[in-house]
Amino acid sequence: MATETTSFKREMLSTLPSLRAFAVSLTGKHDKADDLVQDTVMKAWAKQSSFEMGTNIKAWLFTILRNEFYSQMRKRGREVQDTDGAFTERLSVHPSQYGSMDLQDFKKALGQLPDDQREAIILIGASGFSYEEAAEICDCAVGTMKSRVSRARSRLQEMLKISGESDYGPDAVSAQVTTTNHSF
Amino acid sequence: MKNDTLVGQQNMRQQPDDGLGPTSDIGSRLRALYGAVQEEGVPDQLLDLLEKLDSAEQAHAKQSSQGGE
To answer: What is the ipTM of this complex?
Structure first.
């Protein structure tokens, strides 16, 4: 028994960084994201017996977190989102491949997407889920998931005026997009 | 660094060409933002919570295994 618990804990631990990143993208705030992950961990722990070892714990945890997020939102009467992007301002992005300016704009654009499209493109594009898994997490049909992702992608491209393929280097993109001065 | 490989591995899944692949601007920007949060690591309070849950569970398991199975 003890060993089973421990491996459950270990699997959970390995998922936490990604789970937390998803939480940040949902809440737009680090402190709220941490609270949400904490609630999720407790919920998951309590439901441990309903999880089958060896199955996809990551998708299972994401599902719990997402349900928890929306049920809290409903309870609180949909608090006004006081952020200007899906990922928080506190997020320090290492300017490796893109200038930080460029990513700031991307963050804003992401924040302007409808919730369902944003979570779809993040689950597929960043969390690494398949369409089937993401559809299960969001409790929708696979076709719905695909169309959300595709709409999200077109909207982002439109907002940022970038092409899907890297035809233009990061410099060309940020030159187009940079109209305001963000402080970082 | 270690999380970069984590992100990389996760995205090695076979996906249809959805414009979010390694060469896409949107895909790599998404992963840059997401990866930055992942690299922050897990806050101590969360790790503490897991430890507490785990040790409570083990104590409980010990107790119940004494009283039967």
So the answer is: 0.76
